[in-house]
Design a protein that fits this description.
Elements (H helix, E strand, L loop, with lengths): L4 H4 L5 H5 L1 H4 L13 H7 L8 E4 L5 H6 L2 H6 L3 E7 L10 H10 L2 E6 L9 E8 L5 H9 L3
Parallel strand pairs: 1-2
Antiparallel strand pairs: 2-4, 3-4
Length: 146
């Protein structure tokens, strides 16, 4: 990051570039146990149907999507993600790779918001299931003015 900093610091809000190294200092590493979204939805034992997924997980979006594959294949029709174009975090999967993965699951990038954040590195992105026309998809389209 330091080798590209001068170039990157010209993009996005100046105050975010000026404070980048202070804000990105690693303070500690902590291991936690996690469940996938598919595991949680299977445990739910509910008749509730879910159709939309919104994730803003500071670069962990792809891992969450991978743990949601059954949900994405079976009932999800819309996804709203914050995706990065610059690898600000170690191991991050960037927007083009996430878009390609979701395309395999029949989701299409419908709307990509303007860049924001440090170095204009991220975009909020709306994906919709290809060919779905339902009351839920019409609500999603209305909310996001599509």
């Amino acid at each position: 990051m330091r080798s590209n900093f001068n170039t990157l610091s010209l993009k996005g809000p100046k105050w975010l570039a000026e404070t980048w190294f202070d804000r990105s200092e690693l303070l500690k590493i902590e291991e936690i146990s996690c469940k996938t979204l598919d595991q949680i939805l299977m445990q739910e034992n509910s008749n509730d149907a879910y159709h939309f997924l919104k994730i803003d997980a500071q670069g962990a979006e792809f891992q969450i999507l991978k743990g949601s594959e059954q949900f994405l294949k079976n009932s999800c029709i819309g996804i709203y993600l914050e995706l990065f174009t610059i690898p600000l975090y170690k191991g991050i999967v960037l927007l083009p790779e996430v878009e390609a993965y979701l395309k395999e699951l029949d989701f299409i990038l419908i709307k990509k918001m303007p860049p924001h954040g440090s170095f204009d590195s991220q975009h909020d992105c709306l994906f919709l299931k290809n060919g779905v026309d339902s009351p839920e998809s019409r609500v999603i389209r209305a909310i996001y003015k599509i």
